[in-house]
Amino acid sequence: MTEPIIELKNIDVTFHQKKRTIEAVKNVSIDIERGDVYGIVGYSGAGKSTLVRVINLLQEPTSGSVTVNGETFFQADSQDAKKTRIGTNDLRVRRRKIGMIFQHFNLLNERTVTENVAFALQHSKLKDDEKKAKVAELLELVDLSDRAEQYPSQ
């Protein structure tokens, strides 16, 4: 069995608002293997976006551990435990290799589907032909190849 590229172990995210405590994510563990595609579904306010934001520490968990490509980004055994976290500069470098699309993602209306997908790759080190191939692969994955040259309004 291969090593997961994303490991979330016993993730909790708790928010404190005035006298209220909100458990947005409670004891979630998931291993994601290379090539896997996941969708996280649930009611509004169920913690889906919060959980996804934990992967690259856009949201720091209250407890649990986050490991990406074998590197621990965050670890805390409990709310009171000492937390270890990847450094800010190192995290910034790692985030450049993680692509995420959130529920309220906005497409650029003046760009085609292909151009919108390619937009996320503009700062990558891929050569132009590699970017083109990656865009084609991604459009095929989500069954949008036939709409590659259309605009979001179409």
From TrEMBL:
One of its GO terms (molecular function) is ATP binding. The keyword Lipid biosynthesis does not apply. It comes from the Bacteria. Residues 25-150 form the ABC transporter domain. InterPro entries: ABC_transporter-like_ATP-bd (IPR003439), ABC_transpr_LolD-like (IPR015854), P-loop_NTPase (IPR027417). Keywords: ATP-binding, Nucleotide-binding. SUPFAM superfamilies: P-loop containing nucleoside triphosphate hydrolases. Pfam families: ABC_tran (PF00005). The keyword Nucleotide-binding applies. One of its GO terms (cellular component) is plasma membrane. PANTHER family: IMPORT ATP-BINDING PROTEIN, OLIGOPEPTIDE TRANSPORT ATP-BINDING PROTEIN AMIE. This is Methionine ABC transporter ATP-binding protein. It comes from Leuconostoc pseudomesenteroides. The lineage of its organism: Bacteria, Bacillati, Bacillota, Bacilli, Lactobacillales.
